[in-house]
Design brief:
This protein has 371 residues and is α+β, with helices and mostly antiparallel strands. The chain has 2 domains: 3-116, Release factor (Methane Monooxygenase Hydroxylase, Chain G, domain 1); 125-371, 2-Layer Sandwich (Alpha-Beta Plaits). 49% of the residues lie in helices and 19% in strands. It has helices at 3-24, 26-40, 49-88, 92-116, 137-157, 187-191, 279-310, 344-348, 353-370, and strands at residues 127-133, 162-169, 175-182, 196-203, 212-223, 238-243, 259-264, 269-273, 320-325, 331-334, 340-341. The protein has an 8-stranded mixed sheet with strand order 2-3-1-5-4-9-10-11. Strands 6-7-8 form a 3-stranded antiparallel sheet, covered by helices on one side. Strand 9 and strand 10 (331-334) form a beta hairpin. Helix 3 (49-88) runs antiparallel to helix 4. The longest helix has 40 residues, at 49-88.
């Protein structure tokens, strides 16, 4: 790379990182860290396990964020020195090393820039994701299972713990629905752009005549509730049923009635959990899912009121947002951002960061235009 190109690239990265530092505000974050460290060192911290977990998690996130910004600034400063020395000595090997570091640094800063765009009320929270097969019969059920694996592989790639709460298997292949939680900083804000209808076009493996089939699956993403959300659910509003857990094909995987189904009578919301070992554990997990659904319902009602005041027609979640085409050509395309790749296999193996990042940028621009 020629000298002037390095100069321009370094200036652009410095500008981007300076904007990130203004948002993160390491000095203010350091004050927050000091206060959280004081709370963590309190001897009675774990008398309230929920609060203790929240405080320690916030401390870990804040420290990681500051370390990440400081680390990128240090790398950028070191790169500027390396470029200057390499150019002064016309050292081709060092210039190549600087070029590689420049590309690596650009990727890291771009990723952190996307994180700074997550400023929604619940963006920092864990995510509760539900996938449902929609139109397309057995192909749709198979597609829903492919999406479930895709998201679990994405979580695995990032070392994010993911726990499947409930899976409803289809009779022939695939799943009717599945609900799982991803535990990671900003998991909800990150995955919320995945919400909507996904479409698959392929030669159906279930069609004897090898015809092309279009099928659909829906993805719902909710923030996980916290103790501070104060969602009071009277016992009289609930109907709780227990049943035996079952696996693919209806085979019993549990000889006791440990699976739990909870119906919230005022809203008709039904949730179930069958993946824990005991009925009590399944009830706790199902209540967590129900609370998240009720929290999201309340948020949507608030948004609808604001939309009515603004004369806004509301958002378009639930409309088609991504197409996965396997025939007659290979392509995965986001219908909102036009971001596309020609390697569906990689996408189905969890390589979806490009889609997520473009979705977050698109949503931020859309919200800015609306306000």
């Amino acid at each position: 790379m020629a000298g002037p190109d390095f100069s321009t690239a370094l200036a652009e990265l410095d500008k981007a990182l300076t904007s990130i530092e203004a948002v993160v505000d390491p000095a203010k974050k350091a004050e927050e860290i000091a206060e959280l460290e004081k709370q963590v060192s309190a001897p009675d911290l774990w008398d309230d396990p929920d609060n203790a977990q929240r405080v320690t998690s916030r401390l870990s996130v804040a420290q990681a964020e500051v370390d990440r910004v400081k680390g990128l600034r240090s790398r950028l400063d070191d790169l500027a020195v390396l470029v200057e020395l390499a150019q002064d000595e016309a050292d081709a090997a060092s210039l190549a090393e600087a070029d590689a570091e420049l590309n690596s640094l650009r990727t890291a800063i771009d990723a952190l820039e996307v994180r700074t765009l997550l400023s929604g009320e619940y963006d920092e929270r864990d995510a509760l994701v539900t996938i449902r097969s929609e139109a397309g019969g057995i192909d749709a059920a198979d597609f829903a299972a492919m999406l479930l694996r895709m998201y679990l592989r994405w979580a695995e790639r990032h070392n994010y713990p993911a726990e499947v709460y409930d899976t409803s298997y289809a009779e022939e292949a695939g799943i009717k629905s599945a609900t799982f939680q991803v535990r990671a900083p900003f998991a909800y804000g990150t995955l919320s752009v995945e919400q909507g209808t996904h479409r698959l076009v392929r030669i159906s493996p279930f069609d004897n005549q090898g015809r092309r089939q279009t099928s659909f699956a829906g993805v719902e993403v909710l923030p996980v509730t916290e103790a501070a959300d104060h969602i009071d659910i009277p016992e009289s509003d609930l109907r709780i049923d227990v049943f035996r857990s079952s696996g693919p094909g209806g085979q019993s995987v549990n000889t006791t009635d440990s699976a739990v189904r909870i119906t919230h009578l005022p809203t008709g919301i039904v949730v179930s959990c069958q993946n824990e070992k005991s009925q009590l554990q399944n009830k706790v997990a199902a209540m967590r899912v129900l609370q998240s659904r009720l929290l999201e319902r309340a948020r949507q009602e608030r948004e609808a009121e604001l939309d009515a005041l603004r004369g806004d027609g509301g958002n378009s979640w639930g409309s088609q947002m991504r197409s996965y085409v396997l025939h007659p050509y290979q392509m995965v395309k986001d219908l909102r951002t036009d971001y596309e790749v020609s390697n569906p296999d990689a996408v189905f193996d969890g390589d979806i960061d490009g889609f997520i990042e473009s979705g977050i940028r698109w949503r931020k621009v859309g919200h800015s235009d609306a306000t």
